[in-house]
Amino acid sequence: MTEMKELNAEKIEEVKRLFAGVFSAAPWNDDWSDEKQLHGYIIDLMGNRNSLSFGLYENGCLTGIAIGSEKHWWEGTEYHIDELCIKTTEQGKGLGRLFLEMIEKEMQSRGIARIFLQTGRHAPAYRFYLRNGFEELEDHASLVKKLEKTALEN
Prior knowledge:
Elements: E1 2-7, H1 12-23, H2 35-46, E2 51-58, E3 61-71, E4 78-86, H3 95-109, E5 114-117, H4 124-131
Parallel strand pairs: 4-5
Antiparallel strand pairs: 1-2, 2-3, 3-4
Helix pairs in contact: 1-2
């Protein structure tokens, strides 16, 4: 049985395990070995007043997560997905598409106007989202500025 449930901070350990397992592997190869950093990141996402996260459960086992938040915008409230993943061993079985469909239906029932997310243009997720009805915002750019460490941090 496949079902979607809203997640809260009580599920953080389960969420952390799934998140680190997926994003520490190829193609992302992120280093989430620092438990404090991982915990802080997930709490940052799941612990604010507008947080809205979901788990995809396959036969009672957490198989996918969508971590995000509701954001109010002039065109209506949006659901911003910060992180979405399916357990590595379960990818390619249609669960990601199913999960997105479930999320979309839930957002429609809540009166949410749009789902917004960002991903790397060269990541496999980019093509996945395009195949599932997402459109690239041509007039948007993601920007970052890396800061040098101060003497106190060294």
